[in-house]
């Protein structure tokens, strides 16, 4: 590698080169600053875009929140927000690691370069000063030597002049001798100055300037190396966040693959199904006859199909196209639920045994899913003794279709149960705190907790009352649906094509069906207890399938709560029945 010293006669070139190098660093710093501004603006626009389409945080109660396509879009917006954060991180790292660092380094090398240039200028000035002294002594020597020569020529001419006196000759010789002596002194001074200048010049070109050039070369190489590192950081800064950016993009891809169109359709169906049956065919009204011969529900004339009978009680209203501000619960479908069982009837409705027709299939499916537990709990609302008030039209959701009403009631029960559990936990915590204060009075006054304990107790009673209220309403809805389903099923038995005119020799299918129900019920009676419970309130058990209990009475738990708010229990004498779950403290065996 050749040093800058070979450019000893190109000082100005080296000065301009180092200056242009510093300007290049400044230019690169400015370029990176503008890049960071672009990244920050890009990240800001991405965040605003994500915020714009994300809008307000949707509550879980909104219908669209359960759709996979909706959740996937929210995931895309969240990933885009994280992606914007990585762009901001790129801008921040570039500003810290490149702009600020290079700016600080640029100030240092500017000051260092200035020092080297000042040293070079000082050395140059010293050499020039020495040269001026040399030139002055040289000119003086030249001048004095010429004067000495003229004086010597004049003395010789005077000596040869016959007219000149001896005194003139002697004076001319003295003058020539003096001039020769002065010229000799000037000669010696010139020689000394020349020697000094040569020494200064050698020191300047072989010592001072090479050292300064080497320092400038080292400074320039360090500047180039630092600039190269800045170029690398420009790339590495973005590479460092590429894995996270890749995860953001993978998250967007995952959100896209998580979309399930079939599941979305099922969610829409589940959220919006009303529970109403499909409308049946309209009856023909023959106005040409004096009397309308439209058959009644119990007519033994030519029967209609099951769908006509299921739609019979609905009248002529087309619920699909009309307003449904009021819902007739008697026409609702029978959604899956678990309700307390009732003893099977002793004698079922006579009906022939069908083959593989639609009615037989329906009966078998109903037998698989629903057991005739309780015919009605309509009196339960009036029979339950609980300190509750009346519910308004919207509080009991009577304005909703049957299926939607059942879901709203169940959701309300879940919310009240959560709030009740919070209050119970708070009550236990206040009780423990009161015990601590009583044992250690210096920690606090137990009386200060009295108002909080009272308020918590009132809240617990209020939530328990609300819980009992809504459990009664939900049970009533279930029972109404079960009763209506049983009623419609009876009509299907009576008016089926084969069953309406069956003779005595026809086997009785209903007896076999209810016998099967009785067998299932007997099997449940033989089940071993799974826990114990203690009654917290009095329960009259006035409806079929329920059992009365007194406050503080202990019972065995035979069947746990299936989510419908009822628990099956047994007394010591073998009596079994259902009680509201919230009316007892239940302890299950491990």
UniProtKB/TrEMBL annotation:
PROSITE patterns: F_BAR (PS51741), REM_1 (PS51860), SH3 (PS50002). The keyword Coiled coil applies. Keywords: Cell membrane, Coiled coil, Cytoplasm, Cytoskeleton, Endocytosis, Lipid-binding, Lysosome, Membrane, SH3 domain. It is found in: Cell membrane; Cytoplasm, Cell cortex; Cytoplasm, Cytoskeleton; Lysosome. Residues 106-203 form a coiled coil. Its main location: membrane. One of its GO terms (cellular component) is cell cortex. The keyword Cell membrane applies. Pfam families: FCH, HR1_TOCA, SH3_1. Gene3D superfamilies: 6.10.140.470, Arfaptin homology (AH) domain/BAR domain, SH3 Domains. Residues 1-264 form the F-BAR domain. SUPFAM superfamilies: BAR/IMD domain-like, SH3-domain. Residues 399-476 form the REM-1 domain. It comes from the Eukaryota. Residues 528-589 form the SH3 domain. GO terms for molecular function: lipid binding. GO terms for biological process: endocytosis; signal transduction. Belongs to the FNBP1 family. This is Thyroid hormone receptor interactor 10a. It comes from Neogobius melanostomus.
